[in-house]
Specification:
Layout lengths: L1 H59 L2 E4 L4 E4 L3 H7 L2 H34 L4 H13 L2 H11 L8 H7 L10 H29 L3 H9 L4 H12 L1 H17 L2 H7 L11 H11 L3 H26 L7
Antiparallel strand pairs: 1-2
Helix pairs in contact: 1-13, 3-7, 3-10, 4-7, 5-11, 7-10, 10-13, 12-13
């Protein structure tokens, strides 16, 4: 009887262990199923509105289209060859890369200085912060119209001031370099508020003991910015470099469309605007799809290069 009781106890223990494992497996399965169910809406939206259109764009880039895509003929890589040999498109690529580089550097530089000054002041900080952020709250189309009337060659509020204080003649409707400069300034002005929000948040997380020790050691204000704040908020700066690059390539269409229409003389005909004209003005959707694929490839390469190069200088923790 004693042995039977022992074996009976062992059997009950084994059965309870099996039941426990089975229960854990069921709980694990239910947890995984719940996670997939929560991800399902995001996956469906991504597939329908992101991945499927991207694949369709790649497919359409291999065709020459007519009548809004109702008629099309297969041309293979013909659209890519046409773009590669087009001097107009080559100029658009050069203009876009230069434009994006100036926008990213300008936005990061101005935002860093503005954020540091806002972080340092004590009186009226909220009012200054609102003044720095409010342009970002404007839709790009509204911001473009506002800037258009601020520096319009004939009725602009700042036009007479600029011409009175400098030997310049404001005529960016017909002068390409001025148009490029005006659009670049407008785009930078619009994006500063977005960067200030993140930079201020990053600076507020820097321990005050570091800045107090630096002040006691006689470190100047700008050296504190470059040697203390910039290294400690470098992950935030890396994120902003990526976001600003995407903004410069994709988020500046409204400014070009409302202010210059890509002119004068193609001076502001960046890639996203040239793509729009081919798709909706010239109804060449195949060529526009090829342009979208090239634009995506260029931005992807730039993102990869930025992340690889920046990892050496980013301080985490």
């Amino acid at each position: 009887m004693g042995q039977r009781e022992i074996y009976g106890e062992r059997g009950s223990v084994l059965e309870s262990l099996k039941e426990g494992r089975t229960g854990e497996a069921i709980d694990h399965f239910r947890g995984g199923l719940a996670a997939y169910l929560l991800l399902l809406p995001t996956l469906v939206v991504s597939l329908v509105f992101l991945y499927y259109p991207a694949l369709r764009a790649v497919e359409l880039s291999l065709y020459q289209t007519l009548m809004f895509g109702a008629r099309r003929s297969y041309v293979g890589l013909g659209n890519y060859v046409s773009l590669a040999t087009s001097s107009t498109y080559q100029w658009s690529v050069i203009i876009t890369v230069v434009f994006a580089a100036i926008v990213v550097v300008g936005v990061m530089g101005f935002s860093l200085v503005v954020s540091f000054l806002l972080h340092e002041i004590e009186i009226g900080k909220s009012a200054y912060l609102i003044a720095a952020i409010w342009p970002y709250a404007l839709p790009p189309a509204v911001a473009g119209i506002v800037f258009l009337f601020l520096i319009h060659p004939t009725i602009g509020m700042f036009t007479s001031v600029i011409e009175g204080l400098t030997p310049l003649t404001v005529d960016w409707f017909s002068r390409g370099r001025q148009a490029f400069l005006v659009v670049t300034i407008a785009v930078i002005w619009k994006q500063i508020g977005y960067n200030v929000i993140f930079m201020i948040a990053g600076m507020n997380n820097v321990p005050k003991t570091l800045t107090e020790a630096a002040e006691l050691d006689g470190v100047s204000r700008w050296n504190r910015l470059l040697r203390i704040y910039v290294p400690l908020i470098s992950p935030t700066l890396l994120f902003l470099v990526v976001m600003n690059t995407i903004y410069a390539f994709f988020g500046t269409f409204a400014f070009i469309d409302l202010m210059t229409q890509g002119g004068p003389g193609g001076a502001t005909n960046i890639m996203i605007f040239d793509l729009y004209r081919n798709a909706f003005e010239f109804n060449n959707h195949g060529l526009a799809s090829a342009q979208s694929v090239i634009l995506f490839a260029i931005v992807s390469v730039l993102m990869y290069a930025q992340l690889r190069l920046s990892d050496r200088h980013v301080h985490y923790g």
